[in-house]
Design brief:
The structure holds 2 protein chains of 2 kinds. Chain A is built from 9 helices and no strands. Chain A is globular and about 55 Å long. Helix content of chain A is 63%, strand content 0%. The chains are: A mainly alpha, B alpha+beta. At the A-B interface, helix 2 and helix 5 of A face helix 1 of B.
Chain lengths: 257, 97
């Protein structure tokens, strides 16, 4: 079945925007490495991952635009919403940090996306299932690439271990937000659109723990801190990120290349 | 104090563009080990659908002929056209010969 525009509920659109925004904002941070990665080969690898993420975001934005039937394009959704309308978890908008922070975040996000796309392949929305079928292959590679780096850096020199530990301290508190359940999640389960994100937590923790064990890294104790990007309440970094992301589209509205 | 090596070893990359063809040398890259070299090769050399299989080999493991021996090694073949199987007619259905 393909959801017709009239059947697409607000919660369903928000659920899908959350998926697309996670890809888009993650891509924006990864793209910042272009020309700055530690070695040429990794520069290309990170940029490839960023482009994969943009491709995934585009596919979902285009689908949301069609379901919404409000005359907005994928570009409108990507570039012309205000900060509060972006629904990505805070994790992906945090500054790119050093290569350790980037590698660890890549691990967190890629592990999450392998589980999410894997589950979305069973979506009752055939378009979403098709996007997921294509994206899962990309996500599996991103996950392997990131896990590899985390292990190398964790087992590397004193300096790389120190930086990985610092990255883990920094990013770990932003993990629980990925797995919070919400009204959108419950409706997505009910309509068969996709999984409740909270259902992905067990496997995510198992896989990430496996990598951290191999890397010789231990996460800090859980904290009470809860980020809230998925609700549109972002960190102070998001405004700056959007200023850069949206600049061209706002300076040259509907510009074409 | 031991000198810290800052340069990763060089690897030669061979890519097979489709099943049935042979791997062709397409360039080189720096990587810590074979596992990383294959991943890097995937990202650097196959991002436009160039390949279905990758080989990497440490550049320092390649034993090469000496350019100074070129005359001795290769020139004698110049006048031996009879070694080319050009006198056979191949059926159209045989590709890649």
């Amino acid at each position: 079945m393909n959801l017709s525009p009239s059947k697409a509920s607000q919660p369903a659109l928000r659920y899908l925007l959350r998926v697309a925004d996670t890809c888009l904002i993650h891509a924006q941070r990864l793209a910042e490495w272009c020309g700055h990665a530690p070695v040429l080969e990794e520069d290309i690898a990170l940029t490839n991952i960023a482009l994969d993420q943009i491709g995934q975001a585009r596919a979902v934005f285009a689908h949301v635009a069609a379901l919404e039937g409000a005359g907005r394009s994928e570009d409108d959704l990507a570039f012309l919403r205000i900060e509060r309308e972006y629904l990505n978890p805070t994790l992906v908008e945090l500054p790119r940090g050093d290569f350790a922070v980037t590698s660890l975040r890549n691990l967190f996000v890629a592990t999450f996306q392998t589980l999410l796309w894997s589950a979305l392949r069973d979506s009752k929305d055939s378009e979403v299932a098709a996007i997921a079928g294509k994206s899962i292959k990309e996500a599996l590679y991103h996950q392997r690439h990131a896990a590899d780096w985390c292990v190398r850096l964790g087992q590397g020199t004193e300096e790389s271990q120190r930086r990985m530990s610092a990255a883990l301290e920094l990013l770990w508190p932003y993990v629980p937000e990925l797995f919070e359940s919400s009204a959108e999640d419950l409706e997505a389960v009910h309509t068969g659109l996709g999984p409740d994100w909270s259902s992905l937590e067990g496997e995510w923790r198992q896989e990430v723990q496996r990598v951290l064990d191999e890397a010789g890294l231990a996460p800090p104790a859980p904290s009470r801190f809860r980020s809230s990007g998925r609700l549109g309440r972002h960190s102070e970094h998001m405004g700056f990120l959007l200023a850069e992301l949206q600049y061209l589209q706002r300076a040259v509205p509907e510009g074409r290349w | 104090m031991t000198e810290q090596k800052t340069e990763w070893p060089l690897w030669e990359v061979f890519v097979r563009s489709k099943a049935g063809l042979d791997h062709k040398h397409c360039g080189s890259l720096h990587a810590v080990d074979g596992k990383m070299a294959v991943q890097m090769a995937r990202d650097v050399y196959t991002r436009r659908m160039e390949g279905v299989s990758i080989w990497v080999v440490r550049s320092d493991q390649i034993v090469a002929s000496d350019p100074a021996d070129k005359g001795m090694l290769f020139d004698p073949m110049e006048d031996k056209v009879y070694r080319h199987p050009t006198f056979f007619k191949l059926p159209d259905s045989v590709d890649h010969m």
